[in-house]
Amino acid sequence: MFYNPKDGHGLPHNPFSAIVSPRPIGWISTRATDGINNLAPYSFFNAVAYEPPQVMFASTSTKEDQDGTKDSVANILATEVFCVNIVEYAMRDAMNATSANLGKEVDEFAHAGLELADCSNINCARVAQAPAALECKLTQVVSLPGAHNRVVFGEVIGVHLRDDCIVEGRFDVTKYTPLARLGYRDYTSVEKLFALERPE
């Protein structure tokens, strides 16, 4: 099978997100200028640089109570900070609860029954029990082709690691089982590791 995306795929469901998978989930927390906390998962997310450490996530839709975007992006444009919370398998239901299309006045931490903690370097909440959290300052927002496609880039200026996830000086993902997004409504978890030595 071959298709040109501009002509449609002819399948019952779009295969694109299933092809580019698994994808890490950026559980993005922000705080509005009126103090309301927001928390939402984004599967178009990744780390993009080491020095200085930088991450990105993409928002691809809008809400009726925001001006052409979603709460996360609106809050980041106003405050220029955000936090990336890493999602573990044990938090899958809470993560899914925060994906609901809620009004901007709703605190998703409370909605999902999550304990929050304040970030150290930025005015933003984080998921208290997340395996890791990355405090970020906005570097740029890039508009992509399409009505509501925006990519948010941030520099990581603070890192929280849950103590039980550090084993012999390494951040051990097997201690918390990362959750990843596949296509459609499917997810997976990382439970098995193997190593490859890079050729000289």
User: Architecture, CATH level 2?
Assistant: Roll
- Give the count of structural domains: 1
Shape: globular
Q: What is the terminal separation in angstroms?
A: 38 Å
- Topology as a string of helices (H) and strands (E): HEEEEEHEHHEEEEEEEE
**Can you list the strand order of the major beta sheet?**
3-2-6-9-10-5-4
Strand content: 35-45%
Structural class: mainly beta
List keywords for this structure.
mainly beta, three-stranded antiparallel beta sheet, about 200 residues, 14 strands, Pnp Oxidase, Chain A, seven-stranded antiparallel beta sheet, single chain, 4 helices
Ordered list of secondary-structure elements with their pairings:
Blueprint: H1 16-19, E1 23-24, E2 26-31, E3 37-42, E4 45-49, E5 54-59, H2 71-79, E6 81-86, H3 92-97, H4 108-112, E7 116-118, E8 125-127, E9 132-143, E10 150-161, E11 166-167, E12 170-171, E13 179-181, E14 187-189
Antiparallel strand pairs: 1-13, 2-3, 2-6, 4-5, 5-10, 6-9, 7-8, 9-10, 11-12, 13-14
